[in-house]
Design goal:
This protein has two domains: about 120 residues, 3-Layer(aba) Sandwich (Rossmann fold); about 160 residues, Dihydrodipicolinate Reductase, domain 2 (2-Layer Sandwich), CATH 3.30.360.10. Strands 14-13-12-11-7-10-9-8-15 form a nine-stranded mixed sheet. It has a six-stranded parallel sheet with strand order 3-2-1-4-5-6, sandwiched between helices. By secondary structure, the protein is of the alpha/beta class.
């Protein structure tokens, strides 16, 4: 089957730094066009990757040499441009979170099914080989029955003009950073988590949350997750999974460089083991997974409804954190 032809909507940092190199390096994808609202930005990005420069996002969606669209725009623009891409018959890989509201997520997934195209959400870390190792160890009973997850993702303050501080673009710590530990919790504890409590530090001047915490739990198993996130902190990006017979812990858990070799810490009554895992390019793995989803859709026409349902459940968890959180106004 021929390589999947990719069009990129916008020249965001994540696109230029991680995803465009991954698309360009993959034998399963080829970048055919990059769009920007300005000609200079489109040309600079397109020249770097040897593809067409397009002015305006609608013009990119009209191109016959684009099979799939990558959407790295601010969260507030995801729903609009994902919908237009789906209606144009394009497969879509959108940066996380897919949308800012679960109703929009469900609507877009329904639209993708209607048009027979793939719609995927770009959480890179779930494609890292380290998580295959973690799930295998849990399945083998190395730490016994899973009881709890402690996870954090925090970063220092950003420049004052950073889009994360713009309420009109759905900025804020929860949607930009907090969604990572939420996604991790559903990966390690399962899809049936509920929100039992949350706190958000709300910047009243800018109208966005700067950080917060959430307590999630599975009502059937009793397993719980304590999550911390924010953008007014020292940097942290790690988690610890507690079981009845031990624990697993991982640092640099969400966005390690391709050459990084993760260190998985395994603690049991008999001692502590630090297992150095292979390096893995999670962006390349995400591109391969997206291309494979499109291949399967083309060959069988089958929709992956389980993944779609899980995406909606995750979006509803985020909605519930935002809706029920105690706001600390700062």
């Amino acid at each position: 089957m021929s390589a999947l032809r990719i069009g990129v909507v916008g020249c965001a940092d994540i696109a230029l730094r991680r995803m465009l190199p991954a698309f360009a390096a993959s034998p399963r994808t080829v970048v055919t066009a990059i769009a920007s609202r300005t000609a200079d930005k489109a040309r600079a990005a397109a020249d770097a990757f040897g593809c067409a420069a397009v002015v305006g996002y609608d013009a990119l969606l009209e191109r016959s040499d684009v099979d799939a669209v990558y959407v790295p725009l601010p969260v507030a623009l995801h729903a609009r441009w994902t919908e237009r891409a789906l209606r144009a018959g394009k497969h879509v890989l959108a940066e996380k979170p897919l949308t800012a509201r679960s109703d929009d997520t469900a609507r877009l997934l329904g639209l993708a099914r209607e048009h027979g195209v793939v719609l995927a959400e770009n959480y890179l870390f779930v494609h890292h080989g380290a998580y295959t190792s973690v799930r295998d160890l849990v399945a083998e009973g190395v730490i016994g029955d899973v009881r709890a997850l402690h996870a954090s993702f925090t970063i220092p303050p950003r420049p004052a003009d950073d889009i994360r501080y713009r309420a009109d673009l759905d900025g804020g710590a929860l949607l930009d950073i907090g969604v990572y530990p939420v996604r991790l919790a559903t990966l390690l504890l399962g899809p049936e988590l509920r929100v039992h409590g949350a706190v958000l530090r709300h910047d009243t001047a800018r109208g966005v949350d700067l950080g917060g915490s959430a307590l999630l739990g599975d009502p059937a198993t009793g397993a719980g997750a304590q999550l911390v996130f924010g953008m007014e902190h020292g940097y942290t990006a790690g988690w610890r999974l507690l079981g009845s017979e031990g624990s697993l812990a991982l640092d640099r858990a969400y966005s390690p460089p391709a050459e990084h070799r993760p260190v998985l810490r395994i603690e049991r009554a008999g001692g502590v083991e630090e297992r150095v895992l292979p390096a893995h390019d999670q962006a390349a793995a995400a591109v391969a997974a997206f291309a494979e989803s499109v291949r399967q859709r083309r060959t069988s026409g089958a929709a992956d409804t389980s993944d779609a349902a899980a995406m909606v459940r995750r979006a509803r968890l985020v909605d519930e954190i935002r809706r029920t959180a105690h706001l600390v106004k700062v």
